[in-house]
Amino acid sequence: MLRWEPPTAAPTVMANKAKLDAVAAAYFHVSQGYNASVPQDVARGSLGLPLARELLRNMRAKMLPEGDANRNTKMMMQYAHRVPIQTALGHDPSDATPLGETFLVDLLRDDATNAYFVRLRYAAAANDAPAAAFFPFRCLSAADVPTDATTADGVICPFDDFARFVESSSGTSAAGAACYLDEETRKKFGCSVEGAAPSPECARYRAMCPAQACPGGQVYDVRDDSCKPRVVLSDVISNGAGVAVGIAAVVSWLPALIVFDAFVSNAMPDEGCQ
User: Fold this and answer.
1) Environment class of 121 (CB within 10 Å of its CB; exposed 0-12, middle 13-18, buried 19+)
2) For residue 102, what are the CA distances in angstroms to 26, 116, 129?
3) How far apart are CA 175 and CA 45, in angstroms?
4) Which SUPFAM superfamilies match (predicted)?
5) What is d(CA 94, CA 171) in angstroms, rounded to the nearest whole number?
6) What is the pLDDT of residues 143-196, one digit of tens each?
7) Dihedral over alpha carbons 12, 14, 16, 21 (to 10 degrees)
C-alpha cells in the first residue's frame, strides 16, 4: 500500500544564492561578454565599445586648449549594465554585482611634460573609498605590447595606450556592436526584404540600424518604416537636366541596455604619473 509522505523542505533562494549568482554571471558573460577566440565576438566587437569610444571623445575634447569652443569642461556620469563595460575596460569579476558598483575614469596631466594619462579605479558601496582593483587591463603600446599598469592608486597608463586597449576589442564588421547580427538572428528577423517590416523585431532593428537593415540598393524610409529602392529621378528639360536623389536619413544609437558608468574629470597627476 502506498503511503503519503510529507514533502521535504523546498530549497530556498537565499540558501542557493551563491549558485544562482554563479549561473547569472556565466550567462551574462557568455551573452554579453567579449572573447577574441569567438568568431561572432570578433565580428561584432565589444558591446561596451561604443560608449568606451564616447569616453575617449570626451577625453580628447578635454585635452583641447583653453578657449577652444569644443573643449569639454564637464564631468560626465553615465550608467550601465556591468558586463558590456567590463568587456571594454577589462574588469571581469566572477562574484555577484555589488551595490553601487562604479568605475572611476580620470584624465590626468603631468605638468612637467604636459603628457596625458588615464587612471581607472573601482568603487562599490561596500568599499570605504575608491581604490585600485585587480583589472586584467593593461596598457597597450604602439607595438601592441601589453604592460602592467597597476599602481597603489589605480590602473594608470598613457592616454594613447589606453585608447589602443579600448580599440583592441573593436569588431571587424562595419555594422558595429550595436547593429551587428549573426546569420541566424538575421534570418529570424527577415529584414532583407523590400517594403514593410515582416516582424516587430525587424521594425525595431530597422529604426535603430537603417544602414544595415535593408537589402542592397535600398534605403530606410522613416515615414513608414519600410525599405525602398533608391530612386534617381532625371527630368531633362530645355534649360538643363535636373536630378533628384531620394534618400531617407536616420540617426541611430544604442540599445537602452548599453550605457556607461564613468566619471571623467581633469585631475592633476599624483606620484604614479610623474
Assistant:
1) buried
2) 21, 23, 11
3) 10
4) Phosphoglycerate mutase-like
5) 25
6) 888 776 777 777 788 999 989 988 888 889 988 888 888 888 888 888 888 888
7) 140
